Amino acid sequence: MFRYIAFSWAPANESQNALARRLTGTLIDGGWHRAFSSSGFSVYMVGHTRGINGVYTLPSHAGVVLGRLFRRADPSPAPGEDVELTDQEGDEIVRSEGRALVEQFWGRWVAFMPSWAGEGRVLRDPTGTLPCFHLELDGLSIAFSWLEDVSALLELPPPEVNWDAIAAVLVYGRLGAQETALKGVTNVLPGELTSMTSLQRAATPLWRAVDIARHPIEPEPALAAELLKEATTQSVLSWLSCYGDVVLRLSGGVDSAIILGSFYCGPPTAGITCLNYFSPGSDSDERAYARLAATRVGCTLVERHRDVDFHLDQVADPALTPVPGSHIGRLGSDRMDAEVTNAAGASALFTGAGGDQLFEEVRCTWPAADYLQLRGLDRGFLGATLDAARLGHVSFWQTLREAFQYRFTKRSALTNAGQYLALMPSDIVANALGQASRFVHPGLMEGSDLPIGKLMQLRALICPFDYYNPYAPAASPELVHPLMSQPLLELSLRLPTYVLTRGGRGRALARDAFSDRIPPEIASRRSKGGTEEHITAVLQRSLPLARSLLLDGQLVRRGLLDRQRVEASLERRPTQGDAYVSEIHSCIAIEAWLRRVSRGSRSTLF
């Protein structure tokens, strides 16, 4: 499990020097490796492996990059081959204060570059794959990836909860700005060069997703498909080159089938084992599709029944993290992920996460409004409106009306936020929405000039997926989401939504681009598998725990949940389709996290 900690302090301050020396000694005794050190600035890491999460030293003692880099100019790195920064590249990164790193490279990384005055600075890669948080103690500024490490290192008391942020998590699902759910702990935003010792000053954005989306391109359909195919293939094969054998979660849907097809677009460079989860239910068993994809390329498919006996007490003690996590999607899979990965001798678990957002799997009429804003009332608008009507499953006239409404009314990144919450008092929801600027990514808040469909796509993409598993951090395999790679992210943000959904199909461009790599039954399928029946069954089995956690929990005591509504929802046995099932799971995850926060750290540094 790769982690890092960086310290910045005033070398002339003896008390800060003494604290830095003590912490350094503790880290080294715990087996941590010094990646960089200068007067008043040190970076340490553990769990590093060259070619996966390694060290890239900048020239003239100007800093260090941790993680994994790929050159944009190298579309297909050789297996096991890592980037060696040339002196010219390193000098350009330093002279540009990190901009060259963002523009000429991509990957999974975080860079530490002291200023000319020795002030510690951190730059997080545009995808934000590696977490980066910040706190201060007695004048010492600390940037880190895993809070358990820092809490144990500093022997911190239980942190103070930011209750406004908890309300925001309930409403938005995730936090995208600097504030976290713990007071004193802040989030370093992706693509920003941030001073570690003066976080109150504005960070310098070197890459912003909203700016990428403001510069659309509209190539001819065949060229658009080729560009998408190239960017996806580059991303998938680049990540595959880092590892030996790997496991791919093969759901039977389009995204994971695209990744599998990309693995085999040339001679395979690694052993591939596919893993499919299934459970009873009309939409929970996609083995037939997964078998088609695996058989097409001749790879091994392991099928695992989702744990029918899984109980929520198995996710009731998460790690100490700056923001509550979510256990939906992990209900019984963590143990089997580890078992299958270990049995296959694999070094990573690949997933198709992000495909819905990147390839635009939506049911709405937004693309017609986007066309109207970008192209106006030209000859193509009629066709775009018909496509959007098919996509949204509504009439042409409704789509036409909505296109003009969305085009000429003020657009908001908060559209529909909090609309379907059943358990929160309305005034709490309204208050959280009124504080959006504190908790929603600033680039998203500034994106009201974007077409409505592109703004909603940006909202879905702007928060990174979790890199660490808060429920089984040590046992979990390295998780790789190759679709969430910077080149593919940038291309998807530039392609208009009506190009991505041409013909009125979700993922239309991706389906066309990869029609030669995935089974036709998957390319043409309109249905989509899910886990609704599974998560409902888990909740039904765990109702006593749910009642114990929620009815007398901190969310109810703080007034963030309406106790009568929660009690009523738990009195009747939840069934598939009940709108509040996912909301109850989210509340349980937050309540379990709150209990964990009250106990402080349990981690060691080894």
Secondary structure: number of strands: 17
Q: Which strand-content bin applies to the residues?
A: 5-15%
Helix percent band: 40-55%
Distance between the termini: 11 Å
Strand order, sheet with most strands: 2-3-1-9-8-10
On the 0 to 100 scale, the average pLDDT is 91
What structural keywords apply?
606 residues, alpha+beta, six-stranded antiparallel beta sheet, 41% helix, globular
Task: Please provide a written account of the structure.
This protein is an alpha+beta fold. It has 27 helices and 17 strands. The strands form three sheets. Strands 2-3-1-9-8-10 form a six-stranded antiparallel β-sheet, with helices on one face. A six-stranded antiparallel β-sheet has the order 4-5-6-7-11-12. The radius of gyration is 24 Å and the shape is globular. It starts with a strand and ends in a 7-residue tail after the last helix.
List the helices and strands and how they pair.
Elements: E1 3-8, H1 14-29, E2 33-38, E3 41-46, E4 54-57, E5 64-71, H2 87-95, H3 99-104, E6 105-112, E7 121-124, E8 133-137, E9 140-144, H4 147-154, H5 163-172, E10 186-187, E11 192-195, E12 204-205, H6 209-213, H7 221-240, E13 246-249, H8 254-263, E14 272-278, H9 287-297, E15 300-305, H10 333-343, E16 349-350, H11 355-359, H12 366-375, H13 381-392, H14 396-408, H15 426-434, H16 436-439, H17 442-445, H18 452-461, E17 479-480, H19 486-494, H20 497-500, H21 508-513, H22 520-523, H23 532-541, H24 543-551, H25 554-557, H26 563-571, H27 581-599
Parallel strand pairs: 13-14, 13-16, 14-15, 16-17
Antiparallel strand pairs: 1-3, 1-9, 2-3, 4-5, 5-6, 6-7, 7-11, 8-9, 8-10, 11-12
Helix pairs in contact: 5-15, 7-19, 12-13, 12-14, 13-14, 24-26
